[in-house]
Amino acid sequence: VTEPTHLTRDQLAPLVAAIYRRETAALTELRNLLPPFPGCPTCGQPPAELFVRNDHPSHFLEDRVGFGFRPCGHTFTADGEDLYNAYNQARQEAT
Ligand SMILES: [Zn+2]
């Protein structure tokens, strides 16, 4: 098992923006035209699925989120605050 790669806010922003656009599109009737998931930051492979992992007990006291890509299996962590800020930024740019 490889250690997850920690993403900075700058690395996180385009990822979160793409996920936000995808989730927004999923709420409309354009379900068949969902924007693709962003490519994996490590290998660039477009994932079929994103998954969230909460299996890092050592990070229990830190505001840290773990997630990964399938099928390539690369995993990442991000600070909760960075994630929150990136999400807010994506939401503002979308309106
Ligand atoms: Zn990958």
Structural topology:
Elements: E1 5-6, H1 9-26, E2 49-53, E3 64-70, E4 75-79, H2 80-94
Parallel strand pairs: 1-4
Antiparallel strand pairs: 2-3, 3-4
The chain binds zinc ion.
Which key terms come to mind for this protein?
95 residues, alpha+beta, 4-stranded mixed sheet, binds zinc ion
Description:
- The protein is an alpha+beta fold and 95 residues long.
- The protein contains two helices and four strands; from the N terminus they run E-H-E-E-E-H.
- The chain has a four-stranded mixed beta sheet.
- Strand 3 and strand 4 form a beta hairpin.
- Helix 1 packs across helix 2.
- The chain is globular, with a radius of gyration of 14 Å.
- 14% of the residues are buried.
- The model has no long low-confidence stretch (mean pLDDT 84).
- It binds zinc ion (ZN).
- The site of zinc ion has 7 residues, from loops.
Offer a quick outline of the entry.
The chain is of the alpha+beta class.
Order the strands across the largest sheet as they lie in space.
1-4-3-2
If you compute it from the alpha carbons, what radius of gyration comes out, rounded to the nearest whole angstrom? 14 Å
Distinct small molecules: zinc ion
Strand content: 15-25%
**SSE arrangement, N to C:** EHEEEH
Helix residue percentage: 25-40%
